[in-house]
Design goal:
alpha/beta; 5 helices; 5 strands
Length: 155
């Protein structure tokens, strides 16, 4: 039986936050498991915490590069699962949704890796009706959502 091909998309290196540290642990754990062939697209938009959620033109160019890299990977490699380290703010969710939609176009199963608490209370409940419909439409196409603690399962 061939190993499952997994692509992880997220800000893994450098480890500047809890999400990136959790992502690094996930990547390191999977790449050492012979049941998985793991690739990584390290979407490193920030080098330090003070630039998180701050706009810059360089982040737009990086995003275009990451989208192009994802498409090349999916064209030349059959990926079974895409794990996306997703975010709980609207702009970051839109960015992640582009990765999700591209993965779905290539029939990859999408797994969202949730590190923090607050999807419903801090993110979803604060969206407009139109944005909620967008999130709902996307989330119903997700294969699985993985959380790092049992307390987060109810989110």
């Amino acid at each position: 039986m061939r190993p499952k091909r997994v692509l992880i998309i997220g800000n893994i290196y450098p480890s500047i936050s809890g999400v990136s540290i959790a992502g690094e642990m996930l990547y390191e754990g999977l790449k050492d498991n012979k049941n998985y062939a793991v690739k990584l697209i390290n979407t490193s938009f920030n080098r330090e915490t003070k630039t998180i959620e701050k706009f810059s033109v360089s982040k737009i160019f990086k995003f275009v590069f990451y989208v192009f890299r994802l498409m090349l990977t999916l064209v030349f490699t059959r990926i079974d699962f895409i794990i996306i380290m997703h975010s709980f703010n609207w702009i970051a969710f839109l960015k992640d949704s582009i990765f999700i939609k591209i993965g779905l176009l290539f029939n990859s199963k999408i797994i969202l890796y949730a590190h923090g608490i607050g999807f419903e209370k801090l993110f979803y409940n604060n969206l407009s009706v139109r944005r909620k419909k967008y999130v709902d439409n996307l989330m119903c196409r997700i294969y699985k959502v993985v959380v790092v603690a049992d307390v987060m399962k109810c989110e």
